[in-house]
């Protein structure tokens, strides 16, 4: 047989063999798929439900990814000043959300008789809270007021990309910049100014929170509040009166004169206290603008039922105090069972009672002695053990000697 004929016959036979193998593989695959389908049908219902949920979530993600931002419905962001939080998103689809921000430098009250020139987003500290949904496209219109003395910008910790948008939003006084980013991951995030010197801009009050709700939303509660801690560095000491300037040396040494909630001493205390009713479920979106200190956030008289650690997916339960890092956040949920005044503090406790990190949640409602009673009695206490009795005569002269001195000090104090 000629060589060319042999080569053609060999290839022809090889092709027929490959076709048979391919056909056999297809037939085997059909039977395997049929068997898998039968096994899937025999699995418990919850497995089927989980698969359906996973497929739906994947489909939602794919649809979101494939929808051009130009085809998304356009809505204006609902933004709120602290301590109010924006309402839940209540959408099951992505949107283009327009966020309008303005930076303003202005003198406001730090404490009674104490003034400070804050640098702000939206005219107060913290900046307005923003609430969007996972998969949204956020279009930022960033304006720097003409009276500003320096450029400003914004770094969104919720944004993926260079500087969190800091470069794209760098804006001179009297100008407006626009840019957009996609919310790829749910969570509670800080945003802040990032113009050099970054620490100074943050220390002057340029920070706030943006919540990116998961696609399924958050569990419903009765009340939501917005609270952000910050540390301030003034030339004068705590409670020195008059207009105070920023002190860079104290900031570098991390020695603040003020540590406060929502930018001012007493911002959520007294007449400004948060309010709720007994039996309500409360959620606080807690942020820490810093620039330096880590917060030990605690509500005296309450236990957090759940804490979204650092504002993410990890949930801790039955928590007394939660750490909120500088440039970080947390979501705390709890039920207020009985009426009373509950004190919000940074439990690095001198910051609360000596630097201003103190707020109040006032709860009204009916008493419930099954949970806690009022004081039931107050009687004299006389130790009866032998050790106390033996030491009493020896300590009596010292106590007697101290009494005139104490009386003298009391008399001088009353003059």
Helical run tally: 6
Structural class: alpha/beta
Q: Sheet with the most strands?
A: 6 strands, mixed
**Overall 3D geometry?**
globular
Q: Low-confidence runs (pLDDT<50, min 5 residues)?
A: 1-59, 396-415
Report on the architecture of this protein.
This protein is α/β, with parallel strands linked by helices and 415 residues long. Helix content is 26%, strand content 33%. It has 6 helices and 22 strands. The chain has helices at 3-42, 45-66, 198-203, 248-252, 350-355, 386-414; strands at residues 74-76, 79-80, 96-111, 114-121, 129-133, 137-144, 155-156, 175-182, 187-192, 207-213, 223-232, 242-244, 258-261, 274-277, 281-290, 295-300, 304-308, 315-319, 321-324, 328-335, 340-346, 358-364. Strands 1, 3, 4, 6, 8 and 12 form a 6-stranded mixed beta sheet that branches. A 6-stranded mixed beta sheet has the order 13-11-15-20-17-18. Strands 2-5-10-9-7 form a 5-stranded mixed beta sheet, with no helix packed on it. Strand 3 and strand 4 (114-121) form a beta hairpin. Residues 1-59 and 396-415 have low confidence and may be disordered.
A few lines on this structure:
The protein has about 425 residues and is of the alpha/beta class. The protein contains six helices and 22 strands. The longest helix has about 40 residues.
Q: How would the blueprint of this fold be written?
A:
Blueprint lengths: L2 H40 L2 H22 L7 E3 L2 E2 L15 E16 L2 E8 L7 E5 L3 E8 L10 E2 L18 E8 L4 E6 L5 H6 L3 E7 L9 E10 L9 E3 L3 H5 L5 E4 L12 E4 L3 E10 L4 E6 L3 E5 L6 E5 L1 E4 L3 E8 L4 E7 L3 H6 L2 E7 L21 H29 L1
């Amino acid at each position: 047989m000629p060589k060319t004929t042999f080569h053609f016959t060999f290839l022809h036979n090889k092709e027929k063999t490959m076709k048979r193998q391919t056909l056999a593989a297809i037939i085997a695959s059909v039977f395997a798929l049929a068997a898998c389908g039968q096994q899937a049908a025999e699995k418990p219902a919850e497995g089927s439900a989980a698969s359906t949920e996973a497929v739906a979530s994947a489909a939602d993600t794919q649809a979101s990814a494939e929808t051009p931002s130009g085809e998304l419905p356009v809505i204006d962001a609902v933004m709120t000043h602290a301590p109010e939080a924006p309402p839940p998103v209540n959408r099951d689809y992505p949107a283009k959300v327009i966020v309008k921000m303005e930076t303003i430098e202005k003198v406001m009250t730090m404490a009674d008789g104490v003034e400070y020139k804050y640098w702000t987003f939206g005219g107060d500290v913290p900046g307005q809270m923003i609430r969007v949904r996972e998969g949204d496209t956020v279009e930022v219109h960033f304006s720097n007021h003409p009276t500003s003395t320096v450029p400003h910008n914004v770094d969104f910790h919720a944004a993926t990309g260079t500087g969190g948008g800091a470069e794209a939003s760098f804006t001179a006084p009297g100008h407006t910049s626009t840019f957009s980013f996609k919310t790829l991951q749910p969570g509670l995030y800080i945003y802040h100014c990032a113009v050099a010197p970054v620490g100074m801009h943050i220390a002057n009050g340029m920070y706030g929170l943006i919540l990116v709700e998961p696609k399924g939303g958050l569990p419903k509660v009765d009340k939501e509040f917005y609270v952000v801690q910050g540390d301030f560095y003034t030339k004068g000491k705590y409670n020195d009166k008059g207009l105070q300037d920023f002190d860079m040396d104290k900031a570098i040494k991390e020695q603040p004169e003020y540590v406060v909630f929502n930018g001012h001493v007493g911002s959520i205390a007294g007449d400004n206290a948060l309010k709720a009713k007994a039996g309500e479920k409360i959620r606080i979106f807690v942020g820490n603008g810093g620039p330096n200190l880590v917060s030990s956030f605690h509500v005296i008289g309450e236990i957090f039922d759940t804490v979204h650690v650092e504002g993410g997916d990890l949930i801790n339960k039955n928590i007394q105090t939660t750490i909120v890092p500088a440039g970080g956040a947390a979501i705390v949920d709890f039920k207020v069972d009985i009426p009373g005044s509950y004190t919000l503090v940074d439990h690095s406790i001198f910051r609360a009672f000596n630097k201003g990190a103190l707020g109040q949640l006032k709860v009204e409602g009916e008493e419930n002695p099954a949970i806690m009673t009022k004081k039931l009695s107050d009687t004299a206490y006389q130790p009866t053990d032998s050790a106390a009795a033996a030491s009493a005569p020896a300590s009596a002269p010292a106590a007697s000697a101290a009494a005139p001195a104490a009386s003298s000090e009391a008399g001088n104090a009353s003059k």
